[in-house]
Amino acid sequence: MSKRITIGLDYSHNNPLILETSSYNEFIDFLFASNYQLSKIETGLYSIDILEQYDVIILSTPINAKLDPAEINALEEFVKLGGGLLIASSSGADHSNNTNLNELTSRFGFKFVSDEIFDSMNYVVLQKRIILDDITPHAITELVNKAVFSNACSLEILEEVAEHDEVEIDALIHGGLNCWRRVLRGKEWVEEDSPKIPLLVACKYHEGRVVGFGTISIFSSLGREYGFKAFDNNNLIANILRWLTIKAVSEEKVINLTLNNEIYQWLTDLKNSENWETISDIITVALKYFKDHYKKIMEKLRRVELEKYKTKQILETEGVSDHEIKVDEKILKRIPNRDKKDLEEILKSLSEITGEKYDFSKEFLELEEKFKKKNIVEYSLEKEKVELIDKYYEEDLKRFKKETGKNAIWRGKITQAFKDWLREQYKE
What we know:
The chain has an 8-stranded mixed β-sheet, with helices on both faces. The chain has 3 domains: 6-244, Class I glutamine amidotransferase (GATase) domain (Rossmann fold, 3-Layer(aba) Sandwich); 261-292, no CATH class; 294-426, no CATH class. It has helices at residues 25-33, 48-51, 69-80, 93-97, 101-105, 159-162, 233-244, 261-274, 279-292, 294-317, 329-332, 340-354, 362-383, 386-392, 394-404, 416-426; strands spanning 6-10, 37-41, 56-60, 84-88, 110-112, 115-119, 123-124, 126-132, 134-135, 147-150, 155-157, 167-174, 179-185, 188-193, 198-205, 208-213, 409-410, 413-414. The protein is elongated. By secondary structure, the chain is of the alpha+beta class.
């Protein structure tokens, strides 16, 4: 049975992100739907014994409230021992919110800057709702092509801490080239360009993990253009929570999957009707069966795909339009059948999921290529399609000429001698 992950929401520092408000109901619904167990931390963050009850603690920016030094020490110890900590601030950071998050985050190698970020070109409705696509590949940014942060502050990585042996910190999302900001300089707010400024960091600290970013609106249900469901914001939050809980599920490999709607609906119906605990359990069992019978399944799928490929080639050659070709390629095209690189990619992904190494035989790929050639050759000879022979099998033309001293094509037609030679080469 899968371990249920426990998330603690800080309720002791006037935090805006709480269960009772409808402003964040989509995010809260996501947490429940994902089988996370949610708890309120109402008595402060002083005791490591209490904090260790949680896999992740979410600390949204306190408003007019400050963390006690004992709480900062306890949170640092919680992370050091393997806990996950998500810290969110907002525009103006500690200065505008009258708090001291930076006294905590500086332990992990970063701080929130007292500024507000804008983008003069890449934004939604308002320049303070910035669209972000400068995204570093990472487990946290998987399936995240665009995100949107609203009313956000930036972050600064503290080099003196980041260079410590027990700290590994990366900025994963940056602002664009047209970013600018209002930033506090002494007692004055000034405007300045701020291209490529860090907006989200991920940190490994001893045995634990920390993620920090400077916006609360990413959790919001109030604005479709900037909240939890905007662009890939929900994927980003889902990835962050998975990454923060990697120790809690260390016996498993946590990944994101993109499923087509029909398959997802079938999985959902199956889970409910057959009393599966989670969709992940169904996928795990299916992949285990796929792993155990990989060669047999792939051979069958390849045969099916090759038949469809042959049919499609014939129909296309006869001028049948795409919408008339009743071939379901949306799934079959995922099967590595034409490109060795594609096959290597799927084998690599399967290896990451199962922890075992897979490879393919040279003989199998050569046989597959021979089948594809055979399909086209048979059709070409039957229909006298010289251009197909010329396009796909130039090496055969050269070999035939070299071996027989004869021409394969004469006056625009395939010679009988070349037909007989080809059938001999590609006979099953």
